[in-house]
Structure to design on (339 residues):
């Protein structure tokens, strides 16, 4: 079971009444499972409220029923609640003062404020339990809820590998059209140890010692402590695997962006208070579409990786790897790392 913050500017009422939360793309909710606890944060100029707790009762599905006026939040999860309450964001700080943990409370508030534009923020256990405690101590009851819940035809609407493969036409073309769908596809594969994509990625991570994917926690759109979420993070007690995804092959126009991503994720993960492990090894893994020209960019990125981290190279063991993906028979597979 995990904790999540789901964000909205103005649709908290609709989420509560319909017991649904929706996002624009498939990746934002792809790692949320049945039984996870979520809180709904509505942040605008009028209020900064957090509602909850909710329990997830149905994972990611695609549904075009109009819930959110003028917005196409069709990727959805189903929520349930017993005693629904809300707090003001400042109640988190008040709780921090009273339990002598105000620095932690301030950091948590900053995390929520900096990332209010994200659909979903994965919380660690300490953060989730702190919000639960604050709601218990300072929560206000909602006076009335006009329930408009409905049951979607889940078997026809669930977002699974077949749905994403069909949406991206993987039977007819050798690449993903959407980077968010590529991310969601990998996340769904990692939930099934018997999936061939899972096995491929497991073999790739095993290049590094004590890096068993089956003994790891998997996150997507994870914020290490700033306002820049990384695509996928696979964490265990010995390794932080930072996986950055590109749906296309490498080209010179994406190099400046990749350089920024390499530096900020590797540095912010170095001593992130949000990680519940303190691994000695940080592995940056870049996944791109298979192409013969990728090798021409490899040396430049490796050199940049070493130069940008030279001042902290004695603090952790850093590794860099480029992995190519390809599509075969409508399935996502990986080549061995580029050497």
């Amino acid at each position: 079971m995990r904790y999540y913050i789901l964000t909205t500017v103005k649709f908290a009422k609709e989420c509560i009444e319909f017991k649904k939360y929706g996002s624009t793309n498939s990746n934002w909710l792809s790692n949320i499972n049945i039984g996870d606890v979520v809180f709904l944060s509505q942040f605008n100029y009028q209020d900064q409220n957090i509602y909850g707790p909710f329990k997830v009762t149905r994972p990611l599905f695609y549904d075009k029923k109009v819930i959110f006026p003028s917005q196409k939040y069709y990727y959805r999860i189903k929520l349930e609640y017993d005693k629904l309450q809300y707090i003001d964001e400042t109640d988190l700080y008040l709780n921090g003062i009273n339990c002598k943990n105000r620095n932690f409370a301030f950091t948590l508030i900053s995390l929520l404020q900096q990332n209010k534009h994200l659909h979903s923020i994965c919380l660690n256990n300490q953060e989730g339990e702190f919000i639960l405690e604050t709601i218990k101590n300072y929560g206000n009851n909602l006076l009335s809820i006009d329930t408009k819940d409905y049951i979607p035809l889940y078997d026809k609407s669930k977002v699974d590998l077949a749905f994403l493969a069909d949406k991206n036409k993987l039977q007819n073309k050798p690449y993903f059209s959407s980077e968010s769908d590529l991310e969601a596809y990998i996340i769904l594969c990692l939930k099934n140890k018997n999936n061939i994509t899972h096995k491929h990625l497991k073999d790739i991570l095993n290049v590094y010692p004590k890096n068993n994917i089956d003994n790891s926690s998997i996150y997507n759109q994870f914020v290490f402590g700033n306002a820049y979420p990384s695509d996928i993070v696979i964490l265990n007690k010995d390794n932080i695997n930072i996986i950055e995804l590109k749906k296309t092959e490498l080209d010179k126009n994406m190099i400046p962006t990749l350089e920024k991503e390499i530096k900020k994720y590797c540095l912010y993960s170095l001593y992130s208070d949000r990680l519940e492990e303190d691994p000695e090894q940080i592995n940056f893994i870049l996944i791109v579409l298979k192409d013969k020209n990728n090798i021409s960019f490899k040396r430049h990125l490796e050199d940049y990786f070493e130069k940008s981290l030279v001042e902290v190279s004695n603090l952790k063991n850093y590794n860099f790897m480029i992995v190519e993906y390809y599509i075969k028979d409508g399935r996502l597979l990986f080549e061995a790392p580029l050497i």
The chain has a mean pLDDT of 93. The CA atoms of residues 233 and 242 lie 5 Å apart. The first strand starts at residue 3 and ends at 8.
